[in-house]
Amino acid sequence: MTTDRRLLIATGNPGKVAEFRTLLDGCGWDVVAPADIGLPRVEVIETSRSYLENAVSKAVRHAEASGLTSLADDSGLEVDALDGRPGVISARYGGPQAATASARNARLLGELDGVPPGRRGARFRAVLALAIPNGETYVREATVQGRIAAAPRGAEGFGYDPIFELPDGRTMAELGEDKHALSHRGLAAREIIEVLRELR
Ligand code: IMP
C-alpha cells in the first residue's frame, strides 16, 4: 500500500475544491487539487445517468493518472415538481444557452413559475467516491432536503446555492461556514473521513 498521504480532489470545479479543503481539514491527509500537482486535465466523460458510476469513474481515472488516492464527487439538485430534474445533469442543465450558474438558476425558476411554496420541494444529493491506487474504491452518499426559493438570495457557495432554501428559511448561499455542517457534501464527507482515517 502507498505511504503517500496526498489526497487528490478529482475535479476541475474550484467551488468544490474549496469546499473539500475545508471539509477535509484535519483528516490526516494532505489535500491537493489537480493544479497543485501539475496534473494535466483528466478527461472523464460523464455519460452515465448514475451519480455513483460517474463518481467512481472520476475517482478511478484520477487515481490512475496521478498515482494518488483520489476523491471524486458527483452531485446534483433534484426538484420534485420537475420529476427529479436536473439531477445527474445539474452541471449542464439547459445546455449552452444556460452556460453560467445564474443562467441555470433563472431557467429553473422559470420552469417553476406559478408553482406554490408547498410544491417546490427539492434535495441536493452527493455521492463521494474514493479510489486508492491499488484499485479499491469506497463510496458514501448523502442528501439534504429543502425547497426552491421564489428568487435567488445570498452571495456565497456556488451553483444552485442561491435558490435552494433549507427548512430554516435560509438559502444555501446565505449559510456561510454553516454550509459545511448541513450540506449533502458535508454529510457525505464526514463519512469519507472515517474511511480515510482507517486507510492511514
Ligand atoms: P458534477 O457533480 O460535477 O456533475 O456537478 C454537479 C452540479 O450540481 C454542480 O455543477 C452544481 O450545478 C450542482 N451542485 C452540486 N452540489 C451543489 C452545491 O453544494 N451547491 C450548489 N450547486 C450544487
Describe the structure.
With 200 residues, this protein is α/β, with parallel strands linked by helices. Helix content is 29%, strand content 22%. It has helices spanning 14-23, 51-66, 101-111, 178-182, 184-199; strands spanning 6-9, 30-32, 69-79, 121-131, 137-148, 164-165. Strands 2-1-3-4-5-6 form a six-stranded mixed β-sheet. Helix 1 (14-23) links the parallel strand 1 and strand 2. The longest helix has 16 residues, at 51-66. The N and C termini lie close together (10 Å). It binds inosinic acid. The site of inosinic acid has 18 residues, from strand 3.
Unreliable spans are none
Name every ligand kind in the structure.
inosinic acid
- Helix % is 25-40%
Report the span from N to C terminus.
10 Å
What does this entry show, briefly?
The chain is an alpha/beta fold.
